[in-house]
Design brief:
82 residues, mainly alpha, 4 helices
């Protein structure tokens, strides 16, 4: 499963699938969710240790909003003005 649109859409789809996969365990579901994130979000997620799947989902939503704000302001993810 991969993020194709927003984190919120990916999260909703993931939660539907994960409900039937609870036997995989929290750590496995956390890894699957992280691996499905877009690279620009996943790269910023790898510097933080998360304790729950909800923590990962919430943080990825914040990172996406931050990235979108920078794009709207005309600043690249590298910090340069376009």
């Amino acid at each position: 499963m991969k993020q194709c649109d927003t984190v919120m859409q990916y999260r909703e789809e993931f939660e539907l699938v994960a409900r039937n996969q609870q036997s995989l365990g929290q750590d496995t579901l956390m890894g699957i969710f992280m691996n499905g994130l877009k690279e620009e979000i996943k790269a910023k997620m790898n510097i933080v240790d998360f304790e729950t799947l909800t923590d990962i989902m919430d943080k990825s939503t914040v990172i996406e909003a931050h990235n979108n704000a920078w794009r709207t302001a005309g600043i690249t993810l590298g910090g340069r003005k376009r």
